[in-house]
Amino acid sequence: MPAFRFEAIDSSGKTRRGVLEADSARAARSQLRVQALTPLVVEAAGNQMRDTRHARLAFGRRLSQREQAIFTRQLASLLTAGLPLDEILSVLAEQAERDYVRELVAAIRAEILGGQSLAGALSVHQQDFPEIYRALVSAGEQTGKLDIVLARLADYIEQRNTLRQKIQLAFTYPAIVTIVAFGIVMFLLSYVVPQVVSVFSSTKQQLPFLTIAMLGLSNFVKQGWWGMLIAALLIGGVLRRILQQPRSRLAFHRWLLDVPLLGKLVRGYNTVRFASTLAILTAAGVPILRALQAAGETLNNVAMRQNIDQAIVRVREGTSLSRALAGTHTFAPVLIHLIRAGEATGDLTTMLERAAAGEAAELERRTLFLTSLLEPLLILAMGGVVLVIVLAVMMPIIELNQMVG
After folding, report:
1. Complete DSSP assignment for 4-51
2. Among 243, 289, 338, 386, which residue's Cβ finds the most Cβ atoms within 10 Å?
3. Looking at the 3D structure of the chain, how many domains does it have?
4. Which helix (H) or strand (E) holds 3?
């Protein structure tokens, strides 16, 4: 039975929104009137969501990573319990905390009741369910192990979100220190330095070079801040336009991989995503070439993705997966050795999971090391800048004291 999104007014004049099932829009309006509601808008949930895709993205209306993980986990648990899929989706729609999630689940249920498979229903909402997600669901439906695949997929999403949050939190403190330091320096240059140095202007004292330079910088900050802002925006726009070009983007991503410390973080983060995705795809029974292609698409580094494309060509020609990946010189030797061991023992999935877990732990260690190194460097840099400003202010006072003495 189709699902309809409605907006109606109750007897007290309050607006109510939700989703209901009916044979047609007219039947949906009749149901609302029976419930003492005056219908204002009644639209098919699936069609409405398709037509307003770009509007949702513009206003941030889409399934968050947390909501995607919860939806997948609940779906897997209820499938394991043996409930029918349409009944499961009905329960999930009722339990949804957000109107958008409720509409999304109702639209998926409507597609399934219309004869679509779960993967086919999810393909209508590609902005909420990426290709790798849909490929895994399709593989689970074909092999009859949808509940197992969804459980592993939920684990994968949760682990990926946890890793991303740890990295973001690790860099939060250095970012805050940088912003605070920048604000303090701007305040000193725009207010404190001019106020203090203006005292000496009436004495016609020859100011030191450092003080004169600091005054010039202060005047530039006070009067030319808009110029700096425009220049920053222009430079950012030009750089963004350059990086949109395929060759420039590829060259930049190759350079990123070679940057000390940062390159290892980029390489490690993409390795975790690749190994985890490949593990879950092979466990679902996806053919190795299709699994490699899907796992390569999860990489956000274009240079590494290009290397995976080259490895796919070698595997298609008959080369083993470990030798094909080793030839790309992209991944750590540990990953290659574990894949080779998995090929030898016939347990590739377990070895990929072990490689992903090990690389994730190593990535966390490197992130903590980098942030612990950044923190004292930022404090020292801030202290150095403040010291220069203080010297610029104090030097005229010291010289004046010497003249008086």
Report:
1. EEEEEE-TTS-EEEEEEE-SSHHHHHHHHHHTT-EEEEEEEHHHHHHH
2. 338
3. 3
4. strand 3-9
pTM (two decimals): 0.68
Give how far the C-alpha of residue 112 lies from the chain's centroid of Cα atoms, to the nearest Å. 30
Please compute Rg for the chain using Cα positions. 30
Q: What residues contact 338, with CB distance under 8 A and at least 6 apart?
A: 351, 352, 354, 355
Q: What are the residue ranges of helices labelled H in 244-346?
A: 246-258, 262-283, 288-297, 302-316, 321-326, 333-345
Residue 38 counted as domain residue: yes
Kindly report the backbone phi and psi dihedral angles of residue 285, in degrees, each rounded to the nearest multiple of 5, phi listed first: 85, 15
Q: Residue 276, Cβ neighbours under 10 Å: how many?
A: 26
Query: Span 314-321, mean pLDDT?
Result: 90
- 263/367 same-domain check: yes
Q: Quick one: 74 and 212 in the same domain? A: no
Q: How far apart are the first and last CA of the chain?
A: 96
- Sequence-distant (6+) residues with CB within 8 A of 227 are none
Backbone φ and ψ of 130, nearest 5°: -65, 170
Neighbours of 248 (CB within 10 A): 13
Question: Residue type for 20, please?
Answer: L
Range with top average pLDDT, 99-113, 143-157, 344-358: 344-358
Question: How buried is residue 192: exposed, middle or buried, by Cβ count under 10 Å (0-12/13-18/19+)?
Answer: middle
CA neighbor of 128 nearest in space, from 144, 151, 104: 104
Interatomic CA distance for residues 203 and 403, integer angstroms: 12
Q: CA-to-CA distance for 135 and 108, rounded, in angstroms?
A: 16
Domain that holds residue 177: 166-404
